[in-house]
């Protein structure tokens, strides 16, 4: 039996546990992490990165692979906006992987908004700094 006292805040994690048993070593890490809250996972990763700075590269790789970190939404566009114009304007911030100008299918005109997916997070950050 493991007795643990775990407390986590957004920036810090502390534990007080008994030593692991043989059964604990066989337990799948995915099953251990599954019930963790987002805040607890964030605290765990921050603590891991602080103790093992090389882990930040893995975190960056995963962030770069996730489209949520590379996609921006733009609205209030002119009704005549086309993908080529958007690509030309936003490519100065970084390589664009995908650009979708959302159009009205009936009138074949822009609906005034778009999604741009950059190849790297750096392009997204630059575009958000320089609208």
From TrEMBL:
PROSITE patterns: RRM. Gene3D superfamilies: 3.30.70.330. One of its GO terms (molecular function) is RNA binding. It comes from the Eukaryota. Keywords: RNA-binding. It comes from Quercus suber (Cork oak). This is Ubp1-associated protein 2a. Signal peptide: none annotated. Residues 70-131 form the RRM domain. The keyword Lipid metabolism does not apply. One of its GO terms (cellular component) is nucleus.
